[in-house]
Design brief:
The chain is α+β, with helices and mostly antiparallel strands and 215 residues long. Strand 5 and strand 6 form a beta hairpin.
Amino acid sequence: MILRWQAEARQAFRSFHSSAVASGLVSNIGKKPIVYPPTVSLEPTPTAVSVKGPLGETFVPLHPFLKLTNTAPNTLSVAVENPKERKQRAMWGLTRTLIHNAIIGMTEGFTTPVYLVGVGYRAALEADPRGRGEGRSGQRLNMKLGFSHSVFMSVPEHIKIEVPQPTKIVLSCTDKHKLGLFAAQIRRLRPPEPYKGKGVIVGNERVRMKTVKKK
């Protein structure tokens, strides 16, 4: 049995949804202009936009319904042909975020710390015996993660690694997506457990602790 207040809430949601679609929705993220420094140059093409900066060059794919315009010096605006379509609104905000991340990556880069929490956990950066090639940078991580053996992980050529402390690894990259993928690979080796908090913790990750049930 549906209560009266539930029926009124559903009716209000339907009316709000229909009126919002009728008036034409916009992306709160996509409508924000992108301000980039003079050291960055953007060259849009029908299929992608090239972002060049002090740290290199990258490309962001574009859909045919996306439009890029320079509303002011060093200011880029992203728009779509029909904001009422759900896919175009979704790609509107996503593309704006990808371009903004590419600008930051080509000027400052991204950095993520990785912490090894546990007794005897430590890491060291050493030369890879296999050398460079096939996406490898010629370095590898030698980690002690509570197993009876050491865990080795090759460092990709697009990732820079520093080990300022035995229990701290600092990852740097110009691509935020690739940086997150590599950090997730390290975390997957020893995910943090909820009883003692031991494991690999990425960035500001917080582990929700559990209490042991006493018999």
